[in-house]
Write a structure and sequence with these properties.
The structure holds two protein chains of two kinds. Helices cover 70% and strands 1% of the residues of chain A. By secondary structure, chain A is mainly alpha-helical. By secondary structure, chain B is of the alpha+beta class. Chain B folds into two domains: 200 residues, P-loop containing nucleotide triphosphate hydrolases (Rossmann fold, 3-Layer(aba) Sandwich), CATH 3.40.50; 125 residues, Coagulation Factor XIII, Chain A, domain 1. Chain B is built from eight helices and 20 strands. Chain B is globular, with a radius of gyration of 27 Å. Classes of the chains: A mainly alpha, B alpha+beta. Strand 1 of chain A pairs antiparallel with strand 4 of chain B, so a sheet runs across the interface.
Chain lengths: 276, 426
């Protein structure tokens, strides 16, 4: 046999010692799992890819109707209200989908977890990637809408990748905490949709951050999605109520959640196979 | 070269189990309720409300297990449910971590704890080959190289681009095993997967496993099917309560496993429940024994020559001769379905003018029960009057065996009975 000689010594605590190396070693499996999730996602729904466009579009229509038309919430800049909503909605839907998908990912893949070894963190990661593909498709929605409203984006648009990375890390971090909790406490999955639902109103999706009273702004900004959504608005629409301080808070909270997520996940993942 | 492929030293694994009724999983609301209750309890007693009392018991699933598997060796692992076999395989395949001990694995390891690991029903056969291969640890190029071989082995060429959810269960199993059988690893861990698949394919898999064994692949095989263990493994070990009870050649292990007498009560003298009859003469002991060795058995193997031993004793010594004794044994399966009855009168053996105390032997020859657990009801009639009726004793288990001595079985742990058969072509 021409394969190099492998030797593996299993002792207690082995997987923590080689944690990051193992993830790299199993990168091919990560590609395969992401590929599987993406493939299955677009195979299962009859309208497939169209769904990832239709969903934000319909939600946008409703939010515009409720917030813009009925409630007549003010907009700051000279851009149409639907664009304001869409710029908030697309990142929000990515966050919501990614956290709930990765939140349930370990339980959805329990047949794998109890049958083969691989670094478990690959699973919520590939679930996040799947939602990310949806996000990229939905982002394309901006092109026709900007044409319809004859709106020219400013040079800020070059910062989109930076905010994309930020929201990816936040969703992944949050997802790892949720999925680990979900394995440990089985009734947690009923809490999850609720968190996502109230999050929609606690984030500036259907409205601009400006309408939040100044006194409450600092508290409001603790929600990392505030800085990120306003960041996307700033990139796509050229202006927004984004403040530098707000952005820094979002950045700090994102990295805190990411670190906490990975830490908690690592602490509990050894027992996943025993718990499931 | 007889290098060591798997070396396990002092391996131990414990689980914490909650006292009282063990919940299948934890629910957040239970934990919160429990913590709250504890908090107030401690508060009442003046203890630190935040400390937690030790409510857990430690259960050692594996306790100081050591063994070695040489390169190219096929090692069988047998034992009852809960003996630690599956935990051992899970630790070897790194699904869970040990608490103590050390394992050295020389070579790449693949574990086959399920047929079709990672298959997704929505994906096609072709896609699933790549997916399952990746999950089992194959690289993409390896799968590509072996792709045609895998498809050929499974015999699913025509359905390669059909989602596997439309596959028949046989096709599904064939494809799953084909992927696993082509793994280029030096060590293969197999758990009970041979029990599936149709007859022809099962034979093919066993052949394939034999082949890989000859090419230096080491296999650790866990199975309840004594037939396949016997066919495949030269050496085996028997596990009991998390440790190795016997490490020897396969035959010895199977004999030991089967003769372990722990499953049911055989001494009836103290049994009062489910017992009726006049009680003039009572059954005192019932058990099975191997016809050839005379060893007491509790788990039988299909095709094994077995005797049922029934001891009886009259209550009053006054009776010194029983004019007519009739014994009937009704055998039921686990679902309380009637299987058969043994009866001396029915089979034309009469016990007339027998002693007040004695031993009856019912030679069953090769037993034709298939896999399963069985229950007996004993009826003892003295002079045509029911004297003793006992239920729920002499429960016995039958392990799948090679009833027809053909070296081939496709019953896969299904229950039923074997029927003597002769085949010819006209």
């Amino acid at each position: 046999m021409d394969t190099p000689k492998h030797q593996l010594v299993i002792t207690p605590g082995l997987s923590s010692a080689n944690y990051w190396k193992d993830i790299y070693r199993y990168r091919e499996l990560f590609y395969m799992l992401s590929w599987r999730d993406i493939k299955v996602r677009y195979k299962q729904t009859a309208i497939g890819v169209l769904w990832s466009v239709l969903r934000p579009l319909l939600t946008m229509a409703i939010l515009v109707l409720v917030f813009g038309y009925f409630a007549k919430l003010p907009t700051s800049g000279d851009y149409p209200y639907p664009l304001l909503v869409l710029a908030g909605l697309i990142p929000w839907q990515f966050f919501a989908n990614a956290t709930s998908e990765s939140g349930n990912s370990l339980l959805d893949n329990q047949n794998l977890i109890t049958k083969v070894y691989f670094p478990r963190i690959i699973i919520p990661l590939s679930a996040t990637v799947t939602s990310f593909v949806d996000f990229l498709i939905a982002l394309m929605l901006f092109l026709p809408l900007m044409l319809i409203y004859r709106f020219t984006p400013s040079w800020h648009i070059v910062f989109i990748p930076a905010f994309t990375i930020l929201i990816f890390l936040l969703s992944f971090g949050f997802g790892t905490i949720l999925t680990a909790l979900n394995v440990k406490y089985r009734d947690f999955r009923y809490v999850l949709p609720f968190i996502v639902q109230i999050g929609l109103y606690l984030s500036p999706v259907g409205y601009s951050t400006e309408i939040v009273p100044l006194k409450a702004q600092w508290l409001y900004s603790l929600n990392p999605m505030v800085g990120i959504i306003e960041g996307f608005r700033w990139c796509l629409l050229g202006e927004s109520s984004l403040q530098f301080g707000q952005l820094m808070v979002s950045l700090a909270v994102t990295f805190f959640i990411l670190a906490l997520g990975i830490r908690y996940f690592r602490k509990t993942e050894k027992y996943f196979a025993d718990l499931i | 070269m007889s290098e060591i492929a798997i070396k396990v030293e002092n391996l131990s694994k414990s689980y914490r189990i909650r006292k009282g009724e063990a919940a299948r999983y934890t629910a957040l609301r239970d934990v919160m309720a429990e913590r709250a209750a504890q908090f107030f309890n401690h508060l009442k007693k003046g203890q630190n409300p935040f400390s937690q009392s030790g409510q857990h018991e430690i259960f050692w699933a594996l306790d100081d297990v050591s063994f070695e598997v040489k390169q190219g060796e096929v090692m069988g692992v047998i034992g009852r449910n809960g003996a630690g076999k599956s935990t051992l395989l899970k630790i070897l395949s790194r699904i869970t971590e040990p608490d103590k001990g050390r394992i050295t694995l020389n070579g790449r390891v693949a574990s086959l704890l399920e047929v079709g690991t990672g298959f997704h029903p929505e994906l096609t056969g072709r896609e699933n080959i790549y997916l399952s291969g990746a999950i089992l640890g194959m690289r993409r190029e390896e799968i590509k190289k072996r792709f045609d071989e895998i498809v050929d082995f499974a015999g699913v060429e025509k359905f390669l681009d059909t989602p596997v959810k439309r596959y028949s269960s046989g096709m599904y199993v064939r494809l799953g095993f084909a992927v696993a059988a082509h793994l280029e690893t030096e060590i293969l861990l197999v758990d009970e997967v041979l029990a599936v698949g149709d007859a022809e394919f099962q034979q093919k898999c066993i052949g394939k496993m034999h082949d890989v064994g000859k090419h230096g692949k080491s296999i650790l095989l866990v199975s309840h099917n004594m037939g396949s263990i016997r066919r495949l493994c030269q050496k085996s070990f028997l596990m009991d309560n998390g440790s190795i009870a016997l490490f020897s050649n396969t035959e010895d292990c199977i004999t030991e496993y089967v003769s372990c007498n722990r499953y049911s009560k055989t001494d009836l003298s103290l049994i009062k429940k489910n017992r009726s009859g006049s009680g003039i003469v009572r059954l005192s002991e019932v058990f099975f024994q191997d016809s050839n060795t005379g060893k007491r058995l509790n788990e039988l193997i299909s095709g094994q020559a077995v005797d049922l031993i029934i001891k009886y004793k009259s209550k009053e010594l006054a009776i010194n001769l029983i004019r007519d004794l009739q014994i009937g044994v009704s055998i039921y399966d686990e679902e309380k379905g009637f299987v058969t009855v043994l009866n001396n009168r029915m089979s034309n053996y009469l016990f007339e003018n027998v002693g007040s105390e004695g031993v009856l032997i019912c030679s069953l020859g090769k037993i034709s029960f298939m896999y399963g657990a069985y229950n007996c009801i004993f009826n003892l009639l003295i002079n045509h009057v029911l004297s003793d009726r006992v239920e729920g004793v002499c429960r016995f288990k039958v392990m799948e065996g090679d009833y027809y001595e053909s070296g081939f079985s496709n019953c896969h742990d299904r229950s039923g009975i074997y029927v003597n058969q002769k085949w010819q072509i006209l």
